[in-house]
Amino acid sequence: MLEQSLQKKPAEPIASLRTVQEAERLKLAVAGSGAVAFDWTVADDHITWAGALDALPPQITSGDGSLGRQFLAAMDSDGRRRLSDLINARGRDTDSFEVEAELSSPMGTVCFLILGTRIVDSQGATERLTGLMREFTERKHQTNRLTYLATRDELTGHLNRNSLRAELAEAIAAAQKQERHCGFLVASIDRLAMINDSYGFDAADEVIVAVGERLNTSLRSSDVIGRTAGNKFGVVLKNCSESDITAVADRLRSVVRDEVVDTRSGKVSVTSSVGAVWLPGSASSSQEAMLRAEEALERARSKGRDGFCIYHRSQLREGARVRLMHVADEVVLALKEDRLIFAYQPIIDAITRETVEYECLLRMIRPDGTVAPAGHFIPAAEQLGLVRLVDRRALEMAVATLEAHPKVHLSVNVSGTTAQDSAFLSSFVDYVKAHSGIARRLVVELTETAALHHFEENAQFVSRLREMGCRVAIDDFGAGYTSFRNLQMLRVDKVKIDGSYVAEISNSPENQVFVRTLVDLAKNFNLKTTAEWVGTEAEAQLLAGFGVDYFQGFFFGQPLLHPDWP
What we know:
Elements: H1 2-8, H2 11-32, E1 35-41, E2 46-51, H3 58-61, H4 68-73, H5 77-88, E3 95-105, E4 108-120, E5 126-135, H6 137-151, H7 161-178, E6 182-189, H8 192-199, H9 201-217, E7 224-229, E8 232-237, H10 242-257, E9 261-263, E10 266-268, E11 272-279, H11 286-302, E12 308-310, H12 315-336, E13 340-349, E14 355-365, E15 371-373, H13 374-383, H14 387-404, E16 410-414, H15 422-434, E17 442-447, H16 448-453, H17 455-467, E18 471-477, H18 484-490, E19 494-497, H19 499-502, H20 509-524, E20 528-531, H21 537-546, E21 550-551
Parallel strand pairs: 11-12, 14-16, 16-17, 17-18, 18-19, 19-20, 20-21
Antiparallel strand pairs: 1-2, 1-5, 3-4, 4-5, 6-8, 6-11, 7-8, 9-10, 13-14, 13-21, 14-15
Helix pairs in contact: 8-9, 12-13, 14-15, 15-17
């Protein structure tokens, strides 16, 4: 028995020593990780600290700082509230917790993540809080910055479009629940592109910032502003009447117009146009509200600068929108199912009366087999941004036809919308270049107004086409405002006189003078002319006498879906 007793005694201090060593190792591990361990006994409000104590503000760990109430006093209100709730909680379950808290220190505010366990006594009251704290001030700042960038517009500091839309959704939901009203406005800086051209992009940015500040200072504290696009700001008006919307819109336009904006490039006079929608009556969702406000803005801008319009439901407008969407669906399906085709109308030499080329006129075969003219679907495609796909398909179809019929010459149209898209123009040239064998039999037609809307891009487009052997024509000439000097700079090959001046020209002395003048000027610039809508032999002879080079119209041939080509 004594021998057994002697064998047990030396084992006890060894076990104690091992326990001490493990505890020290844990302390070293906690300190090395930069964390601080704590054990807070609620009964005496005492906190025992261990680990990287240098990470804590000194007033927390020294003197009276070892008391829990001092710890709470140094903490921000949210962290203090959450820890106090844990201390005052009742329940027999041991709970894990995670709290973010900010502590005041001589060097400023320090952010900590507190992870721990709430240990309870036999009555379910909190006996102690024990766990770890780790500073994450820098990471918190980085997170806040990323959050800021994700929700704010970088230039103005106002909410970005997505964040503003979320605010608008909340305002609409609150208005519906409380049976009140709210509003949404879109304020657009008028003619910002002109400011860019005249003063430079830096000045335009200064104007955007200044306008945003002026709008913001003119709003109530409950209202919310954000930047929705390059030159547009959106404003959410909470709890307002329809007359309030008009008053706010007038005030916003006034603060923008009344004083010039000082920029580093000079003083800039600025105006804005505003579109608005009253909610929730005129829209049921934030997306719909934004679209309605944009629609009202477009109507305001159509009246000139510094305009205002508030959206009102219109059965006629709603019907037009539904029809527009229906046609857009038809176009998408027709593209997918390869139901876009050409009708080919001949263009005739005015002297020999022989066909020299054909214009490719788009048609769409409907599911029931009927054929829809371009006027049925092209306007909708342009409004909804589908016309680029249509123009691309038209180019591919024209090239395929030229390759299949080596003796045929074709002209194909580029719509006004795509003529303003430099990326599309470049891809158009690349496609023709890849099929360069047909280039000399291809004429590309641009409308008069579109050709000059983005003059430099179109001049380069025309130049690249002509280098490959293509010819370029200006369509609907006389309907816009092109000067012959601009045509010379574009280096086009011919102009097509707008048909509205040709139809029944025999009975219109005014149109005769106009067309004769156009033809004479065109000849001075070595441009060929084509008269559209020629309907009678009398008109053809009159136009030939003026010197018109080519005719196009029903008198010489209607558009054919299946021409008799070799």
